[in-house]
């Protein structure tokens, strides 16, 4: 233990001003720049850094050539401080959004597959009757949140029908996963495809932890069929783009596949049937937003229309 560490005798809890000063010095790299950003002076910031080190009980900076160099402990502390300030910035952003909203604010958490397909159409219909509502869309999986951590959405769009604690799960539509083929592919000659049709064929897969990827893999394993799986993509849209460019074929959710029909891909049914659900998750302990029910109704109607389009294409 060095002499400076032994000299710290008055260890106390940090106050907000000390944390702000520490963050500024770490962020800007020099005491002078940090002082300017905080509207203070260089001697004041230097004095406060010394008090901060006395408070925490260990050195945060090494003094070399009239400059401060963060220690390893300072780097770890800065990581935690940044996380706390990001949380504060999100709170301030939320306050500004609520302040600028003329009516309700509807928070939606939707998987990208839904945020890019059924949600825009449902939103367009909602705005025809509720033009003043403000909407905040987060393209993440609502299942990553829980009643323990607190739901941060009014409506979550998910591909599961599983029961979620403290939330209502509302079915919006039930579909079948479909085969997506490049134009003029030999398999386009058939209306219904089976695992054996894909033997030794270039296949675009979703990420290895995707539940539908795992379902498809089990189906082919059960059938004893080997595919050439050289490409995988984390999103269904990326998989469709790969197919569109002739890099292989795939099987995935019909909503994303339907959105690519006008771009030239072909869709075919797959057997055995692989179900695909669309559900809305609505937290029961969160204050209700009146337009939420209207949006759910539009989402269900949009799903029904997508189902009709698919049935017509796959007939």
Envelope shape: elongated
% residues in beta strands: 15-25%
Compute the number of structural domains.
Answer: 3
Q: Please, how many helices?
A: 11
Order of helices and strands: HHHHEEHEHHEEEEEEHEHEHEEH
- Examine the coordinates and then state which fold CATH places here, giving the name of the CATH topology of the largest domain: Arc Repressor Mutant, subunit A
Structural class: alpha/beta
* Uncertain segments: 1-9
Helix content: 40-55%
Radius of gyration: 27 Å
Number of strands: 13
Sum this structure up briefly:
InterPro entries: LysR_HTH_N, LysR_subst-bd, WH-like_DNA-bd_sf, WH_DNA-bd_sf. The protein has 315 residues and is an alpha/beta fold.
């Amino acid at each position: 233990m060095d002499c400076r560490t032994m000299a710290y005798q008055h260890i106390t809890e940090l106050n907000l001003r000390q944390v702000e000063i520490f963050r500024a010095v770490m962020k800007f790299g020099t005491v002078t720049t940090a002082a300017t950003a905080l509207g203070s002076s260089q001697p004041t910031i230097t004095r406060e850094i010394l008090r901060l080190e006395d408070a925490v009980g260990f050195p945060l900076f090494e003094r070399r050539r009239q400059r401060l160099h963060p220690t390893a402990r300072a780097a770890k502390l800065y990581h935690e401080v940044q996380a706390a300030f990001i949380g504060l910035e999100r709170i301030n952003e939320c306050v500004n959004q609520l302040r600028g909203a003329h009516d309700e604010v509807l928070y939606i958490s939707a998987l990208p597959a839904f945020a890019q397909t059924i949600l825009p159409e449902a939103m367009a219909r909602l705005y025809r009757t509720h033009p003043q509502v403000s909407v905040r869309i987060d393209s993440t999986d609502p299942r990553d949140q829980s009643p323990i951590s607190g739901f941060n959405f009014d409506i979550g769009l998910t591909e599961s029908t599983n029961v979620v604690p403290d939330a209502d799960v509302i079915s919006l539509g039930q579909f079948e996963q479909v085969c997506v083929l490049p134009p003029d592919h030999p398999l386009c000659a058939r209306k219904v495809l089976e695992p054996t049709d894909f033997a030794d064929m270039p296949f675009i897969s979703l990420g290895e932890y995707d539940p539908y990827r795992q379902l498809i893999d089990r189906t082919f394993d059960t059938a004893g069929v080997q595919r050439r799986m050289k490409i995988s993509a984390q999103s269904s849209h990326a998989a469709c783009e790969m197919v569109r460019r002739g890099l292989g074929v795939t099987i995935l959710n019909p909503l994303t596949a339907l959105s690519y029909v006008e771009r030239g891909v072909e869709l075919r049914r797959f057997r055995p049937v692989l179900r695909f659900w669309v559900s809305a998750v609505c937290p029961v302990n969160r204050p209700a937003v009146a337009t939420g029910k209207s949006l759910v109704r539009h989402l269900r109607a949009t799903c029904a229309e997508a189902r009709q389009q698919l049935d017509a294409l796959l007939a």
